[in-house]
Amino acid sequence: MTSEAKLSKDDITVVFILGGPGSGKGTQCAKLVEDFGFVHLSAGDLLREEQQRPGSEVGEMIQNYIKEGKIVPMEVTIGLLEKAMIDNDSNRFLIDGFPRKVDQAMAFEKEIVESSLIIYLECSEEVMQMRLLKRGETSGRIDDNVETIKKRFKTFIESSYPVVEYFRKFDKVHTIPCEDSIDEVYAKVKPIITELFKQKEQK
């Protein structure tokens, strides 16, 4: 990390939560925060906040990428994540919706910190689309509409799913089917994180 960082890389636990749009990443993260004291960083939320920040030099560019369902340049996203990690002064981070490309994964692990494990929430496009359209009724998000949702699915399959395959090579990926209820999915996620911290304590 940069010289401003308050923690050494050895102390930091980073878990990536990956899955297509609407797979329930944010919902599962909220439960993990409650049980394990993680700080939850959503790459998408950080980008949307930056987009709305008065005087942002990259706000308009971010808006255009999000509207098109495309992936924002990684320098921007990694910079926002690093700043958020330093500002939060924690040593447990859940990062959801990132990395979205293999080069992002490699850059983050080289420049910031290596991830401990990856939880991949597996879900069919039909279920994800249904969830997103339902959310779009109240979210006010510019990307919760059929046209953008289809672009986001395409981007996920072409660019983001290879990230899951990349991490599989390192035996880091836990695949969780996530079409069941929130609690049923969480019952499969929680033991993985429990085991992670048990192993860390034994080291």
TrEMBL record:
GO terms for cellular component: cytoplasm; nucleus. It holds the Pfam family ADK. It catalyses: UMP + ATP = UDP + ADP. One of its GO terms (molecular function) is ATP binding. Catalyzes the phosphorylation of pyrimidine nucleoside monophosphates at the expense of ATP. Plays an important role in de novo pyrimidine nucleotide biosynthesis. Has preference for UMP and dUMP as phosphate acceptors, but can also use CMP, dCMP and AMP. It is found in: Cytoplasm; Nucleus. GO terms for biological process: 'de novo' pyrimidine nucleobase biosynthetic process; pyrimidine nucleotide biosynthetic process. A ribonucleoside 5'-phosphate binds at residues 48, 70-72, 97-100, 104, 141, 152. InterPro entries: Adenylat/UMP-CMP_kin, Adenylat_kinase_CS, P-loop_NTPase, UMP_CMP_kinase. Belongs to the adenylate kinase family. UMP-CMP kinase subfamily. It is an enzyme of class 2 (transferase). ATP binds at residues 22-27, 135, 180. Residues 42-72 are annotated as: NMPbind. Keywords: ATP-binding, Cytoplasm, Kinase, Nucleotide-binding, Nucleus, Pyrimidine biosynthesis, Transferase. Binds 1 Mg(2+) ion per monomer. Monomer. Consists of three domains, a large central CORE domain and two small peripheral domains, NMPbind and LID, which undergo movements during catalysis. The LID domain closes over the site of phosphoryl transfer upon ATP binding. Assembling and dissambling the active center during each catalytic cycle provides an effective means to prevent ATP hydrolysis. Residues 134-144 are annotated as: LID. Its EC number is 2.7.4.14. This is Uridylate kinase. Its cofactor is Mg(2+). It comes from the Eukaryota. Its main location: cytoplasm. The keyword ATP-binding applies.
